[in-house]
Amino acid sequence: MMDRVFEGIIATAAMAAAAVMAVFAAGFALYALLLTWLQPAAAAAAVAGAAAAFAAVFGMLVRARAEHRKLMEEVERARAVQAAAQSAAQNAAQAAAAAPRSVFSADVSSWLNEHPLAALAVSALGGFLATRHPALAGEIIAALRGFRRDTDS
Fold first, then answer.
1. What is the pTM of this model?
2. Are residues 64 and 45 in the same domain?
């Protein structure tokens, strides 16, 4: 696994080095071409200006691509929210049609959701009782199988 990661890093570095060499060679060729018409300082300034223009255009392209990607992510998030809202509406309709839950179990469930340390304590107590009295744990589980868990919240 690490070999593949290192191979990827080495390949990326080699491509970056090749790109740097190509840009350097293009700059040197442009400088040599401009020397026939301009003084050395003016030719160097023209090459620097061309490099700056290239960097500016490249930066604008990268920024436009990033903004497009961000816009597409926002569109996907909006679609997901809309789908979740439709699913929640369907679940609410199904829950309204289903048999009502026990008021006691709803109160205990909401209280345990609000107090996670109490939920941890209840879980630990349940594990302790299950190890000490497995028959009692089996009877409690059998009794609780009749209750449906509310998954809307």
1. 0.43
2. yes
